[in-house]
């Protein structure tokens, strides 16, 4: 993320290499480094590989407790980047003891908004505390930064507790939860879709029989949601009821077509999906009947994007195919970029696309 921008952009990853992993036998790593490899070392490798070309963007690197340490922050500073780190008091006692020792002298500034009425008759006040030049660790060589605390007071009592946490059955789910409104959210696992109340986490409804629907994410569809599945005949369109707890109705199930890595695309009355084998299916959005199907250049791990009368399919090997958004399959163009690695994700920006490869980020658009 960056100052002045309201978007957070995920970039190419750098994985820690377990000792038993065959991929850990890298020429640029000694035997001792392979044995001690961890997320912190992976973060420093990522900065060394991408810091130079990202420096002009002046990004801010968010991170958790694991990266709230001197070596990683030093590497980020050397690359010309700022950091925002989140850590718990019990794991980084020094970072919280210093501000507490400054409270009596007034060095810790506190600001708070007006009380807000929460659910029921509860009142909430959001407070911020901050102080500058807090050392990251003990010692004269410690980096110094601004310490910021955000707390919520409910009915006059300070709390940092979770708003809610719902236990779910064990299972695999790589899809992103989708929010319908402030009252409900949906999360999926391999055989069901479950909705939870956003306020207290209580279950609202559940839909079974969704085998293979654990990678692609559900998308909005005509008063409901469309859930793609990697299994043929399991992609389903759900229509929500008037109440948050009303069981949704199954509007249709797609007899043909499946959605593997990429999520379904709903565009101009049609639904577009890409199977694991790289076959694109166009379905009628109202009924789920097949309009056309065609084999693409290869597998698509990124979701398709619709713009005007064009549909853009992004193959994992870097080939972008442009087809007509119509009842007949018509390939308008095919372009290949010279970027290295697999294409994992695409985001639409003004007059172009951002494409995320394994180790590169590219922007394409009008010349």
Explain what the structure shows.
It is a single chain. This protein is 11% helix and 37% strand. The protein is built from 4 helices and 26 strands. Strands 3, 4, 5, 6 and 7 form a 5-stranded antiparallel beta sheet that branches. Strands 8-9-10-11 form a 4-stranded antiparallel beta sheet, with no helix packed on it. Helix 2 packs parallel to helix 3 (70-78).
Helix/strand layout:
Layout (H helix, E strand, L loop, with lengths): L30 H6 L2 H16 L5 E4 L6 H9 L3 E4 L7 H10 L6 E4 L3 E2 L5 E13 L8 E11 L2 E3 L18 E4 L2 E6 L2 E5 L6 E6 L10 E3 L2 E4 L8 E4 L9 E5 L11 E3 L2 E5 L4 E6 L5 E6 L9 E3 L2 E5 L4 E6 L6 E6 L6 E7 L2 E6 L3 E5 L2
Parallel strand pairs: 1-2
Antiparallel strand pairs: 3-5, 4-5, 5-6, 6-7, 8-9, 9-10, 10-11, 12-13, 13-14, 14-15, 16-17, 17-18, 18-19, 20-21, 21-22, 22-23, 24-25, 25-26
Helix pairs in contact: 2-3
């Amino acid at each position: 993320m960056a100052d002045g921008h309201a978007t957070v952009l995920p970039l190419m990853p750098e994985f820690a290499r377990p000792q038993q992993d065959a991929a850990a036998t890298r020429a640029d790593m000694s035997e001792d480094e392979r044995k001690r490899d961890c997320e912190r070392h992976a973060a420093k490798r990522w900065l060394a590989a991408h810091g130079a070309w990202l420096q002009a963007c002046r990004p801010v690197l968010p991170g958790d407790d694991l990266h709230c340490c001197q070596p990683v922050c030093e590497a980020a500073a050397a690359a010309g980047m700022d950091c925002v780190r989140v850590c718990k008091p019990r794991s980084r006692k020094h970072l919280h003891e210093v501000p507490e020792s400054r409270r009596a002298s007034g060095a810790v500034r506190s600001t708070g908004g007006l009380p807000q009425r929460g659910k029921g008759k509860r009142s909430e006040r959001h407070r911020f505390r901050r102080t500058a030049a807090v050392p990251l660790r003990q010692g004269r060589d410690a980096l110094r930064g601004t310490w910021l605390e955000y707390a919520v007071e409910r009915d006059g009592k300070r709390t940092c507790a979770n708003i809610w946490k719902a236990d779910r059955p064990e299972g695999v789910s790589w899809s992103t939860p989708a929010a319908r409104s402030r009252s409900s959210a949906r999360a999926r696992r391999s055989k069901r879709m479950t909705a939870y109340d956003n306020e207290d986490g209580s279950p609202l409804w559940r839909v079974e029989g969704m085998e293979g629907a654990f990678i692609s994410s559900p998308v909005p569809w005509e008063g409901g949601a469309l859930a793609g599945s990697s299994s043929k005949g399991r992609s389903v369109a759900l229509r929500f009821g008037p109440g948050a707890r009303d069981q949704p109705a199954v509007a249709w199930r797609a007899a043909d077509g499946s959605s593997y890595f990429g999520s379904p695309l709903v565009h101009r009355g049609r639904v577009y999906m890409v199977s694991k084998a790289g076959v694109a299916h166009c379905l009628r959005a109202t009924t789920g009947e097949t309009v056309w199907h065609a084999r693409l250049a290869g597998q698509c791990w990124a979701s398709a994007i619709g713009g005007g009368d064009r549909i853009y399919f992004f193959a994992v090997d870097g080939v972008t195919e442009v087809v007509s958004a119509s009842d007949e399959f018509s390939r308008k163009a095919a372009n290949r970029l010279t970027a290295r690695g697999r294409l994992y994700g695409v985001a639409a920006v003004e007059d172009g696309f951002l494409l995320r490869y394994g180790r590169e980020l590219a922007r394409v658009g009008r010349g």
